Amino acid sequence: MAETTKTALITGGSKGIGYGIAEVLISEGIKVAVTSRSKQNAEEAAARLNQIREGYALGIESDVRSFESQQLAVQTVIEHWGQLDYFIANAGVGHFAPIQELTPEQWRETIDINLTGVFFSAKASVDALTETKGYFITISSLAGTNFFEKGTAYNASKFGVVGFSQAMMMDVRNAGIKVTTIMPGSVATEFNNHAPSEKDAWKIQPEDIGRIVSDLIKLPARTLPSKIEVRPTMPSK
């Protein structure tokens, strides 16, 4: 019997880092579901990805702030493809302001999406990943170890993701699940309303993070890089 094709679920996968990861995984023969709070964005991203390999992409409307929504996303992947092998918790948002100006709503949204959303993703997928001896990968940030002005909400969320990921890794490794957190620096994406251009050529590109994810899942079962910091080789002056 032929080996079953591996499957992945990527939150916030309709653009940016998530989409870059999806492109790489599909090009290597892995079926990928991408989620977005917008059904249209998720389906349009899947349509573009299916041009790489027809039938290998699925768009799912999902909100990481809802545990039930994450459960439904996982269930949809399993109903569609029979299993879940890799979960990439990528969805994120950034509000940057001094504490005097940061609003409670901005704080709440940052923590709910960037941190609680990762918990909901993990909680919703851990049983499925136990069955496949799968991989749970979080996309944190160098802001998870380096604090900066106007970063109270973002730093808090990303420091939390790093701590959560490392503790989860210890919880589930005996169940055969790997956990890694990837911590990129400057990436050329639409994050925080940025419009990528040729001026961003010095930055990490989304597909570069995809390559890291691809390399991680190819490592022998005995080896686990649990935390990976990623920086541009030559930062802009």
Automatic annotation (TrEMBL):
Alphabetical list of Gene3D superfamilies matching this protein: NAD(P)-binding Rossmann-like Domain
Record-linked NCBIfam families: PRK07326.1 (NF005594)
SUPFAM superfamilies xref list: NAD(P)-binding Rossmann-fold domains
Family assignment from sequence similarity: Belongs to the short-chain dehydrogenases/reductases (SDR) family.
Protein name as it appears in the record: SDR family oxidoreductase
